[in-house]
Each structure stands twice: as C-alpha cells, then as structure tokens.
Design goal:
With 290 residues, the protein is mostly helical. Helix content is 74%, strand content 0%. Belongs to the binding-protein-dependent transport system permease family. LivHM subfamily.
Amino acid sequence: METLIHQTVAGFATGGIYASMALALVMIYQATGNVNFSQGEMAMFSTYIAWALIHAGIPYWAAFVLTVAFAFVLGAGVQHLLLRPLGNVPVLSMVTVFIGLLVIFNSVAGWLFTYTIKSFPSPFPDRPPFGQTYVSSHELGTVGVTLAVLLLLFCFFRFTSLGLAMRAAAQNPVSSRLVGIRVGWMLALGWGLASAIGAVAGMMVAPVLYLDPNMMSGVLLYALAAALVGGIDSPLGAVIGGLIVGVLENLVGTYLIGTELKLTVALLLIVGVLVIRPSGLLGTRHVTKV
C-alpha cells in the first residue's frame, strides 16, 4: 500500500513536469498549427545555462529567474528571427526546421558543456517534509512550482490585455490584424512563454534525471503523449493529460512492465489516442461536410 501511495504521489510530481512541457507544446500548436519537436532541446539548453550560472556562484533562485528570462528571449528570438521569415511554408518544411533546431541545440550544448553527465542541484531540502516517507521534498516542491507557473499563466491570459491579445492572435490572426494587434509580435511572445515554461520543467527534472544533452528526449515524448491525451489544442487538457500520464507511467512501470520499459507507455498512449480519439479528452472535434 505504501508503494502504491508513493508511486501515485510521485506520478503527480512528474506529471506536473509533463504538464508544463505539454502546455508549451499546446501554446505553439495553437499559434502555428505545428508541434515544436525542438521544445525539449530548448529546455535542455536553458537548463545548462542555469547550471553554468549556479556554478559561477549565483544563488539558485536568482539563477532560476535569470534562466527563465534567458529562455523567454531565446524562444522569442527563434520565432522572430528564424521562423517568421519563413512565412506559411508547408507543414513538412516546418517539421524539418524543428528537427534542425533540435539537432542544433543538442550539438551546441554538447560542444559548450560536453556530453559528460552532470549533477544539478535541487533547491529543496534533502529530508522528506512533515516526517513522512511517501513524497520527497523535491517532488512536493516540483508540484508547488508547477502549480505556481500554471496559476500565473492563467491569470496572465485571463486578466491582462496582453494575454487576451495573444489569445486572439493565436485563434484568429486575420481578425486580430484588423483591430490593430501586431500578430507577429504576439507569436514571438507566445514562443517566449513556451520556452520559459520548458526551462522551468527542465530545471525541475534535472535533479532527478541528471544533466546531459539528451535528458529531455524522453520527457518530450511523455509531454507529447500528455498533450494528445488532453487535446493538442486545449491548455487545460494538457495539464490534465500530464497528470494522467505521470501517474499512469509510474503505476504501469512499477506493477506491470518494469522501469526499463516505461517509455513504451507514452508510445502506446500516443498510438491509442490517435486511433481511438484523435481530439483527446478536451480537444476540439472538427467535423467536415463531404
């Protein structure tokens, strides 16, 4: 029973990370109609920046804020300088660009920081909180950070004029231009926010996975499964899907297939959702008359 409780709670912690990455994928998909396959590598590269800042003597939370700011500028710069000039290129061309970005960030990270596995510090205490053994301080702290990020995003998009303008630009760019919204800059801001969210996820998962240029490949796969389960165009669905995938991964890996094959859970979820319910739990169902 203790194992079941621990795996369930730990699943919520990792599910929060998957939810953050899935939310970043959904934000890019809403704005462009494409899945950013380089999202994980951008998060990994930002996490290396945090590692470098911490080892330079900067306190953890100051490095955390600086890394989020760096990731925001990185995402906005990629969209404005690289993707915006491409215009409305075919989907396969955009997929090629995303894969190219994945390879570039992975190679540059290996070139600058080497491919040696590095430890990444956790800002939370080593001892479990409240004298219990079901959840570690890092797992509980990860849940808290994830919830704080999600709450800030909700307030930003719901109660600020800039957030409403970004939502409008993503949902209907033509009408947004007619009312004076600078759609190009709104898309750049969306990419910046998605990159910043990914950086938070990278810094939360690095103490568990350790830091190396390939650490986010599995996380991105789980995040894609979470986005598809919840609905690739639904931010709330991404959060719910992330929690579902996190708990399911832990329970199935512990009781059925073992930890070595846990990645197959994400693959099965992706295939199953695409076959049975492509719109996911909360995604928009498109009906076409023929």
